[in-house]
Amino acid sequence: MIAAIAFYVFAFILLICAAKVVTSRNPVHSVLFLILAFFNASALFILAGAEFLAMILVIVYVGAVAVLFLFVVMMLDINFAALREGYQRYLPVGLAVGLVLLIELGAVLLGWQMAPEAMNLRFAPIAAGTQNTVQLGRLIYTDYILIFQASGLILLVAMIGAIVLTLRDRGISRRQNIGVQLARNAGNTLVMMDVRTGAGIGELRIIRPQAAEPAAGAHDAHHGAHPGAAHDGGHH
Amino acid sequence: MIAMLLEFLKTPFGILVLTLLKALVLLVPLLIAVAYLTYAERKVMGAMQLRKGPNVVGPFGLFQPFADAIKMMFKETVIPSGASPLLFLMAPMLTFALAMLAWAVIPVNDGWAIADINVGVLYLFAISSLGVYGIIIAGWASNSKYAFLGALRSAAQMVSYEVSMGFIMVTVLICAGSLNLTAIVNAQKTVWYCIPLFPMFIMFFISTLAETNRSPFDIPEGESEIVAGFFVEYSSMSFALFFLGEYANMILMSSMTTILFLGGWLAPFGIEPFTWIPGPIWFILKVCFVLFFFIWTRATFPRYRYDQLMRLGWKVFLPGSLFYLVLVAGVMLAMGWLPHAA
Description:
The complex is a heterodimer of chains A (236) and B (342).
Chain A: H1 2-23, H2 27-47, H3 51-75, H4 80-83, H5 87-111, H6 116-120, H7 132-143, H8 145-166, H9 178-183, H10 186-189, H11 216-224, H12 227-235
Helix pairs in contact in A: 1-2, 2-3
Chain B: H1 2-8, H2 12-48, H3 64-73, H4 85-101, H5 120-141, H6 145-176, H7 181-186, H8 198-211, H9 223-226, H10 236-261, H11 272-275, H12 279-300, H13 306-335
Helix pairs in contact in B: 2-10, 2-12, 3-10, 4-5, 4-10, 5-6, 6-8, 6-13, 8-10, 8-13, 10-12
């Protein structure tokens, strides 16, 4: 009874959210409704006894993917008027495509026959006495390990492809070289000088030239160019 | 009378009432703890900086948190004219509610968790990864550039550190062989995981600092650069809810560290004089110990720069935790210690 009520409540909210994702005028509101839809889907998973999938849905989709969506949508400067410009012109085409998809879906669903065992296994197809985390683990990492690894490789290739396509290093960015920074010490960084009163420090040539800031490696070489400097440091 | 009551508690409605009561029993002390954590932070940091800290309101300044709370309540809630009012007010509520929600699965003692679910660790991880929404929504709904910058920083930061936190948790799960928090604590009866997994313990603690936006990773607030970051436009109770949420999250993360690495409610070594003290006391002591480190870190280290923060998360913690995960799994497999070896 309670499970049925919960199911209808979550399913109802889920459908409303899904509709609002498409119809919201503000894209940020769309993403927020999408997040609510994910949540309700995860609640439905819990009702079906798949608590592991429910948590993973929240962690992966709500906790990471939707954050990036939100991030991107907030950064975009979306012109709402321009978005709606071709609305009426493209409406017939959109409706036609939608109708074809709907008919195809209907044809598939009507002709679909479920085995009676499969119908019984729809919810919680778990062997008694084991958690569904363990079950899923056995299934994915033991029975279907090759397929799992192959899909991982495909994702990796896609990721590397995206990075290669977008990363443009023009060589002007200044990077922090942690190794060089940690290797520095007082002996090769600080220079102790006796400055004659009233003479200024110009003639000691210890002020860095005003020209372009050298990179970290060149910087150290610059200090090396004053052979006396580091040596002097030891005496004072 | 009592028999009737017991009968009532077995009905669905009775279970609901019982759960609500349990939640109340847990959350009221938690809120008091949050209030006194703000006091403790000011006192401890005061001592570290050779100051006295709050000492005027009440004996030793003990009523200071309540004075602050009352002051906050009587201030005016200002909503900026360009803000989106619903989301603007929703963000602090979300932050606060999420910080409370996660406590449903925390076992303060053996079997004391309100919901002792099989996927407790994942639930905690899911809730803590949602914390970023309060901040992003606040930053966006404020319609202010400082708030927005803070929100973007925190989104990037929290997503980055969650990745390595996830790997660290997986390492603990491999050792414990369960996602249930009670089972994880009980698996530490022989040795607390902070000893065999010491590098992970340190990485986890630093990641929790980043996850709670605490110093030295508090760039989402970054007073000196972006005023107060995501909550610059907030005032009164809406500000107080952010504040309470941040401290409740600190306590939550400390209890997570306690459960995953410091043996939860277990007494040290499990030997005589220590076992006389009941489990919940040990739990609270351990949480306070971790919280002290939170405060100590804040008093000691300067704020990280944004690129340094990203470097630490992606180039140090991620490979480090991944390597240790493989190492631990390999050792467990080689020695035949895996709990679920078929």
